[in-house]
Amino acid sequence: GIVKREVVELLTPGTAINSNFLNNNENNFLSSIYIKHENIGFAIIDNSTAELLCGETNINNLKDIVKQYKIKELLVCESQENLVKKYINFDLLITTYEDWKADKINSYDKLLKQFHTKSLKGYGLENHDLAIIAASACINYVELNSFGKTKHINSISKIDSSEYMHIDSFTIKNLEIFESLNNNQDATLINVIDKTQTASGSRLLKKNLLKPLKNLKKINCRLDSISELIKNNNEFNMVYEALEQVSDIERIVVKIANNKSNPRDIINLSTSLKVINLIKNIIKPSMKNFCKKINESNDLSKIINIISKTIKEEPSVNILKGGYILEGYSKELDELRDISKKANDWLVAYQENERSKHNIPSLKINFNKVFGYYIDVTKTHIEKVPDYYIRKQTLVNNERYFTNELKDYEDKILTAGDQIIEIENKIFKKLLEEILFYGKEIQENSKILSEIDVYVSNAYIAIENNYTKPILNESSNYILKKSRHPVVERLLPFGEEFIENDLNLDYKKNQIGIITGPNMAGKSTYLRQIALISLLAQSGSYVPAEKCEIGIIDKLFTRVGASDNLAGGESTFLVEMNETANILNNATNKSLVILDEIGRGTSTFDGISLAWAITEYLHNNKKCKPRTLFATHYHELISLADSLDSCFNLNIEVQEYKNEVIFLRKIQPGGASKSYGIHVAKLAGIPNEVISRANHILRNFYDNKTAFNDLYKEQLPLFNDEENISNEKANDLLN
Ligand code: ADP
After folding, report:
1. Strand, helix or coil at 602?
2. 3-state class (DSSP) for residue 118
3. Buried b (16+ CB within 10 A) or exposed e, 142-171
4. Helical H runs in 438-470?
5. Using one digit for the tens of pLDDT, what is the confidence trace for 90-143?
6. Which of 7, 28, 244, 577 has an alpha carbon 20 to 30 Å from 275's alpha carbon atom?
7. Nearest residue to 125 via CA among 46, 54, 221
8. Pairing state between β 477-483 and 547-551
């Protein structure tokens, strides 16, 4: 017949649901934004998992949202496209929609209809017009692309940024949480700590890391769940095993809503849903947090039963082949199958009978789509063929026939076969509707399983890598004993031991630690480890330390490494200053600021002066006294500790042995005595000639024993034009 042709789906990067376009362990987000003055409403949707989030924020945070959620496509109304492009100066697909659709009344109604509610109060969205417009635009766009299939989008969550520790996209990038700066995926935090067994668990773990909590109760609830697993080893092992059976429920529900699921998906769904009951039976009453979590789950035994009464245990993935509905489900289906089976038996017998009756052992009954059933006889036996065989086709070596009797059976078999598939598909469709009716409850149970998976993964890592439960409170402390960098400790060459270090910060007496020490001593590692541990702790995970106490951090700022934005038309120094300005303008008394070198990209005097003034500002400004660690190669800053009450010096121990430097990696109080720059240059393979000349120049500097400023001025004539050493280089050597 004529093949039906129509466009059934539009594929875009932000709305894809086909697993060929998706990474199992990652979300695939589309975002929509609506701008009003300096504020935006934003919505973020993963059409493949049916998650929809929304919120309102300052437009300056747009870039962070896009980077953090790895937005694949940005939806904006036509008149706002150019404005958006001012904030997004990197490659991103921007899709526009008509302005009239960005209307607050229509958008509000759209959400009510989508979630079958009378108001948006339950979602905390009432009067958040900007967020509502953005969310409605997301749903409209998905609806347009999937030709109306949006049933799976059954809930919306508001992102209230005041609930989470603020981390900007620089920090996520520089701390190498999800991606490494040099494309070594082993060197990311997520690679070290993700031992989740389900795809949705892995996605949740990533979201938790992006949104560390500030609420003590919520953090402790996560931490206590992990402790319960660690304390109850048997139960932990059993829950771990049970989770192996969980498939990607979120994405199966979306496939169902989009008519893309197959019988095997449904069996996987039911197996996964059963795991909640399994876990319920495993855990002990003393595992209070676990019991509470499991008790939040919906009873879906009805759906599990329907599935187990309808679909065979190991069905095919192809619904067109049929055969996946269980016997006993439909009388009509069973009868047809019986006819079909009997006809098949009859065919086998008929073939046997014809073979012996006419003495043609190679006679076969075959089937093809064009001719239906036929009797195949090789040319050698052609004389034995009886009169009632009617010739149908002649091939080089064979003749094909049919008989009236065979035709009768063919009708029976084919009609039954078609009817079987039709009935099976009808039953399947009805089953899908029933499942979809519980879509929301199923997604909720999936979320609980994902949370459990994250706890189990955390407990696994805590045991395996020897992590500890952090203590969080409302103090202003950040205290660590024997802490380690979670990633560097795993990647050290065989035989090399990670040296554990302590930290003692509080915003009253020990507010700013200035860390000096040579390059390669381990300053960056130490700084990053402190930032990472705070992030792990507040996302509710155990941490790599013997002891960890953190007074809740509201914002984590890091300025580590030069993140060039040359493509965006900014110099390294400008990027550095942008990032620093952001810190100085937004840090609070509860923030943690990690600075790894400031002022490198400019002349030494500018650099020192800026670093000096920035430290003073962080120390003296009453509104902004964040706990701060500042690694610097400007030794002059060591004297800041004398004039600023709550500023103190730290250095990383090194030893000189026979003209070589040995890095001991141990943080200790006090400023570094010298910077060993020339030693490190030697390690890096700078020619001996240059090294000895540099040593000579350095000795000359020291021999003069003048103050820094005088030294700088006085020693300049030391370089003649021939040596061609610039003032800046001289200073680098000095430092
Ligand atoms: P810096 O910032 O002072 O130049 P890094 O932090 O980059 O130094 O450290 C240099 C190297 O030293 C790291 O790549 C790591 O392999 C090693 N390292 C750093 N800290 C430690 C430590 N605490 N224990 C063992 N090795 C370390």
Report:
1. coil
2. coil
3. beebbeebbbbbbbbebbeeeebbbbbbbb
4. 439-464
5. 899 999 999 999 999 999 999 999 999 999 999 999 999 999 999 999 999 999
6. 28
7. 54
8. antiparallel
